[in-house]
Amino acid sequence: MTHWTVDAPTALDLDDVTELNVRLIGGTVAVLASDDGELSPGETPRAQIAVSELAGRPLQVSHVDGVLTVSYESLTWDGLLGFLMPRKDRAVVTITVPADCKIQLGVVSASAVVAGLLAGAAVKGMSGDITLQGVAGNVFAETMSGEVAACDLDGEIQFKSLSGGLTLAGGSVGSLSVDTMSGQVTADVSLDEGGIVRVTTMSGEVTLRLPAESDAHVSLRSTSGAVRTEFETLRAVKAPASHTVSGNVGAGTGHVSVTTMSGAVTLLRRAPVGMESKTQ
Fold it and tell me: Are 49 and 4 in contact (CB under 8 A)?
């Protein structure tokens, strides 16, 4: 086991990193894939930690059996969202790891960026915003009030929040599962063959945009919010305490489901440029 106590700006280089665990309170953290283009033949990617700013308690860094951990004493993954003790701990950290490294990243109020990884990611935050860019593999994200913005993800995506919103653009998803109380959900994605999108909110508004050639059975329901679609094959049914739009787009092999109590639901059709859309 190798351990460092980091109490000032510093940089560390490490070999044989296969898994990364990060827990930060305030500040910013970026986790990026190493640039393999700069490697010599036969050379394996290295990991690097660069701490450029630090205030409050020192960071604890350890490297054990391929697992790199950057955290504070007594700050755990399971207890992160229940961390209520006021702290002035703040750090600005950039970490580069091999693209196939597994990561688990948690922040309290810090903002976080994860980009270019191939083995998915698990991220948690309280009020800090999280950005995911070009991450392949399964992604799990959970926040209290922080926003999650993601672009060009490729894999299964699971998102949970209290009031934090999700903005998802680009990429192709096999499974998108969203559960939020009041967070706003906006997703502009392509659906894999047989793919599933399931969104559940209490009051959060939901806007989905799918390609015109999508293939899925669609069910959009809101108890009191408006429900609209640009897909002409779907049909709207209005009844007391229930607004529903349902039907098939294409052959209906995939599945798109949105259920909300009071949030509005909109399903947009990504049509060729120049074609007018029609909204029911």
Answer: no
Instruction: Round to whole Å and give the CA distance between 221 and 247.
Output: 12
| Residue type present at position 188 | D
Q: What is the pTM for the complete model shown?
A: 0.90
What distance in Å separates the CA atoms of residue 59 and residue 26, rounded to the nearest whole number?
Answer: 12
Tokens found for residue 180:
């939020």
Name the burial class of residue 133, with classes exposed (0-12), middle (13-18) and buried (19+) by CB atoms within 10 angstroms of its CB: middle
pLDDT tens digits along 149-184: 999 998 899 999 999 999 999 988 899 999 999 999
Cβ 133 vs Cβ 116: under 8 Å: yes
| H/E stretch holding 213 | none
Which DSSP helix (H) or strand (E) runs through 157? strand 148-161
In the chain, what's the furthest Cα-to-Cα distance?
68
What tokens were used for 144? 């209290």
Burial 21-52 (b: 16+ CB within 10 A, else e): bbbbbbbbbbbbbbeeeeeeeeeebebbbebe
Burial class (CB in 10 A: 0-12, 13-18, 19+), 110: buried
Spatial distance between the Cα atoms of 153 and 78, rounded to a whole number of angstroms: 25
8 A C-beta contact, residue 5 and residue 58: yes
Q: Residue holding tokens 């609209």?
A: 228
> What digits encode the pLDDT tens for the residues 75-107?
776 766 665 555 789 999 999 999 999 999 999
How far is CA 63 from each of CA 18, 119, 211, 261, 275, rounded to the nearest angstrom?
10, 19, 45, 47, 56
Q: Which amino acid belongs to residue 239? A: A
The SS3 of residue 46 is coil
